[in-house]
Design brief:
about 325 residues, alpha/beta, eight-stranded parallel beta barrel, 12 helices, 9 strands
């Protein structure tokens, strides 16, 4: 057998399941990162969201700092920091601190969306009038803080200055693909909830990529949901948590991450089932071998340089087990 050369990475939203609290979610996230590191995963990213009762990753840099202290090799990063919610200087200071604590292990993934509702956006003191239109300028400003100080530069990120922390642009449409291509930055595409634009975004990015100081050729991470278990039946049962999550998102219902159920047909209408299955069509559920087969197909279709896995699994032990199973099987797929 030969080892798969496409790296596997993990995305975590630090989900709070029914019957658990934020402290439980943070402990599970740390254990998940440790399991991913042991299983040979390349990166472990945490996503910024606010005012969602089932996600405990609002203070993203704080979570990453804790996980960094509990791991030793795996790269850590944001998937992503929603840059318009913050002053670029503060982001540079936070991630400069992380890079100083955990040298050569930190990635800074950036998103343009708020990661929350508009009322919470206002509570975050974000200027809602910009509507993300100043995102390219904010990225440029942030990059400047990681470069060596220029002559006469008055404002510096300390720590941060001169650390050249790699920036990533996250996208669920072609917008970030266009900006990543123009600025010569790597792209992480959110196929785990936005598969419709996946191929168009990746194609545009590769065709229009301009080399930069950070990157000389295109590099694409494709993120998908995955659930692995000892049997396909068990994996499909665990995946009903994911189905319920997206059913609730479509209904505008904010709930803790739900427990799996035996029969989804008791919960949704036919049209809702069609919508959810279409949105989650890139998800990979089954035995580890079945999951890896679908992931290899995804690599073949997209030319992905790296695959990142997100898991909506309610039970912490099953979630950790899923990462372990996939990591073991991927190495030989």
């Amino acid at each position: 057998m030969t080892r798969n050369t496409v790296p596997l990475s993990a995305l975590d939203l630090v989900t709070i399941g029914e019957g658990f609290n934020a402290a439980d979610a943070l402990e599970t996230s740390t254990r998940l990162a440790q399991a991913a590191e042991k299983a040979g995963f390349h990166r472990f990213w945490v996503a910024e969201h606010h005012n969602l009762i089932d996600i405990a990753s609002a203070a993203t840099a704080v979570v990453l700092s804790h996980i960094g202290a509990k791991t030793s090799r795996i790269r850590l990063g944001s998937g992503g920091i929603m840059l318009p919610n913050h002053a670029p200087l503060v982001v540079a200071e936070q991630f400069g601190t992380l890079e100083s604590l955990y040298p050569n292990r930190i990635d800074l993934g950036l998103g343009r969306a708020p990661g929350t509702d508009m009322q919470t956006v206002r509570a975050l003191r974000r200027d809602v009038r910009s509507n993300g239109l100043d995102f390219p300028e904010m990225v440029e400003e942030l990059q400047g803080y990681f470069k060596p100080a220029a002559r006469g530069q008055k404002i510096k990120a300390i720590p941060g200055q001169g650390l050249n922390i790699p920036l990533w642009l996250l996208g669920s449409s072609t917008y970030s693909a266009q900006l990543a291509a123009m600025k010569g930055l790597p792209l992480a595409f959110a196929s785990h909830f936005a598969p419709d634009a996946m191929q168009a975004a990746i194609d545009y990015y590769r065709e229009n990529f301009q080399p930069s100081e950070q990157l000389d050729k295109p590099y694409v991470i494709v993120c998908v949901n995955a659930v692995a278990a000892d049997t396909q039946q068990e994996a499909e049962y665990l995946a009903t948590t994911e189905l319920q999550k997206f059913l609730n998102l479509g209904r505008g219902t904010d709930t803790l991450l739900p427990k799996p159920v035996e029969d989804m047909n008791k919960l949704w209408h036919v049209s809702e089932a069609q919508r959810v299955h279409n949105q989650l069509r890139e998800s990979a559920w089954g035995t580890a071998e079945q999951v890896c087969e679908k992931l290899n197909d995804l690599v073949a279709r997209t030319g992905a340089n790296e695959i990142m896995l997100n898991s909506w699994i309610h039970d912490p032990e099953a979630r950790i087990r899923s990462i372990e199973l996939i990591g073991q099987a991927w190495a030989q797929s």
